[in-house]
Design brief:
Length: 66
């Protein structure tokens, strides 16, 4: 089944939506900002080209220039 992501603007809106879904007996999961960030990082990792390589020298140049 597909999912729906809703981003309420206020805590009051969030509470209203949660109450409505609970009354309709629709399952829901509230996720934190940290969980949203984790999902974004996971998506980026999944889209990474694992065949693309970087040399040790390139990595060290980035480390030393940061």
């Amino acid at each position: 089944m597909e999912s729906i992501i809703v981003n309420p603007k206020t805590k009051k809106e969030a509470k209203l939506i949660i109450n409505l879904l609970e009354k309709m007996n629709i399952s829901l999961k509230v996720i934190t900002d940290e969980e949203k960030e984790d999902m974004g990082l996971l998506m980026m990792m999944q889209n990474t080209d694992l065949n693309d390589t970087v040399s040790y020298e390139e990595v060290m140049m980035k480390v030393l220039n940061s």
